[in-house]
Amino acid sequence: MPAEWEPHEATWLAWPENAVTWPGRLLAEVRSVYLRMIFELLKGEKVHLLVKDEATAESVLKAALLARAETSRLVFHCVRAGDAWIRDYGPIFVTGRLRGQTPLTPGQVGFTKWTFNAWGGKYRDLARDNGVVDQIPFLKKYRRLNAGMVLEGGSIDVNGRGTCLTTEQCLLISTRNPKLSRRDIERRLGRYLGIKKVIWLGEGIEGDDTDGHVDDIARFVGSNTVVAAAEEDRADSNHAVLKKNLEILRASRDCQGKRLRVIELPMPGRVIGARKRRLPASYANFYAANGLVLVPVYSHPNDRIALSILRRAFPGRRVVGIECTSLVFGLGAIHCITQQEPA
User: Fold this and answer.
1) Which of 20, 28, 116, 274 is the most buried (most CB within 10 A)?
2) Yes or no: is domain 8-342 CATH 3.40.190.10?
């Protein structure tokens, strides 16, 4: 699995339709977030967008034309998804040679299909998204590799050279793969994603219903450089959890034996949703595309600091903040709704 910052052929998204995830006016606001993201992405790569019908495709295309976006790079697929979190149920693309499998030819792109059980069975109505990849004829052009294990794309982050970040809270929970040991899971990640070293962090942030997805807490921005969320407020419930993860990262080495360079990324404070429930707002949920990094921001003073840190981490790329308070109401942000297809 290549690193996210390596060259893309495309970004995959699923158009938001779920009014339970984003009730009332929030759904329209989230669609505006999507349009802004799509217009930015089209400047550097194709966008594959899952839509429920042709009328939706025509509406999005009209908006793109009005924005003078590069519509020749916009590809629609009529697929009815239960929700928009394609990072977790969509294809995870891989390239090159896969250890333990009949190899892909050098440079050939394929995809791995993992089992999606709606984050440990939390949402039965969304478990049907496990079958979304089967409804996309376009994917038949790629070799498909069925991993036979429950895994969401947001639960891992890779450096493209064999090292993977994940959390014990998510991958070792009994509602995912109760019959697989830690070592079994590491072997499966090695076999299908080329992972040689797994760095196990502890828990995720408060409000995250995915059982601690790593893309809210720590992300590779270079082969041995990681940005990691940190909470300065000792009274905040995230302080101790994130401090422990930072300690693990600072003591870790990549698969080549090199110590990780760890850059702290602030948190945006307490972003509150309905019923005074804390939302899993984090700047670590960014997405790196061709010449671009899309970063969720939350109208918080730390927005500016986080954008500055990520600009230094990704020199030569446009780092664009996208207001995501409405998006994160659905318990995810930019990285959760995107999936990269490598060049």
Assistant:
1) 116
2) no
